[in-house]
Amino acid sequence: MGKLKCFEIILAGNKSVFHPGEKVCGKVVVDLKGDMKMRSLRIFMRGVAKVHWTESRSTGSRLGSYTEHYNAEVEYFFKRQVLFGGEVSEGRDTLTEGRHEFSFSFDLQMGGIATSFEGKHGSIRYWLKAEMDKPWSFNHKTKKAFTVISPIDINKAEYQLCVESSIEKTLCCWMCTSGPISMTARSDRRGYCPGESIAISAEFENHSSRTVIPMATLYQTQAFFANGKSRVRRTKFTVLTENQNNIYILYFCKLLHTSNAPDHERDCIIPVILYQVRAITYEKKTFLQKIVIREAIPRHIFCMHSDPSVTLLVKIRFLMFHQGYCSVLAFGT
């Protein structure tokens, strides 16, 4: 790297996780073997949500197919500070040989930003970038990523309400019709943190001649939106068939620690993470019906709760769309 021995961004206290309204501060360290001319040394802070995926399309002719790209991007903020030199310079500023430290501080806005997220077809990322603007030469750059998490109080009454759904299925084979199989399933509340469990209480009425087995399943659904289109990816995490007086428990402490999700109360085109609990009845290996208990959206890694070790909330919301973009997020049954 020529005269440049070290060029890095160091966050104060080696902190890497921030909440809206906090300061992102630290220093840029430059260590030079000799004097270096530059127009300026600047640092930028940026937050961006991006979505991208491809789909194959047929041309309807012998030419075959082509690939169509779907892209969307939202910039939450773009801030910068000049640490050395000026905005407009002819390269007369010289940084002397040796080690130099330049302090910086940015304020994270209180609203309009989402929780950091990494998915297969999209991401929400926040980072710092320092850049040396050198005359008649390539600029030197260095980056430092950090995580943003939006906390919420899980003790609010709206997160303590239970959710209920029911369905009925009549089995038939040719001219023979058996009695109905009905199921009502409910969760104990809407919001959860790691270390807790989702309690699903299910009531079954089997008036058919078949033996049915209840099962509870936890799904993760990633939904990405761009150009009025969507791409959905679903993963099944837990399947539970044990039953104790028709009470079904799903323990998902470790599952949620690795899945940060965005804040969905703002208009955006960001990816969506949903956690969905389903109660299912089946006979042998034939599924009869799925009952969606509603989707739960993890909001952050920090939540206010009576247990100080609790650090993540999963809450249930409805999903609404506005011109193909995610508005107030939720998925109904």
Automatic annotation (TrEMBL):
One of its GO terms (biological process) is protein transport. Pfam families: Arrestin_C, Arrestin_N. SMART domains: Arrestin_C. SUPFAM superfamilies: E set domains. One of its GO terms (cellular component) is cytoplasm. InterPro entries: Arrestin-like_C, Arrestin-like_N, Arrestin_C-like, Arrestin_domain-protein, Ig_E-set. Residues 177-279 form the Arrestin C-terminal-like domain. Belongs to the arrestin family. This is Arrestin C-terminal-like domain-containing protein.
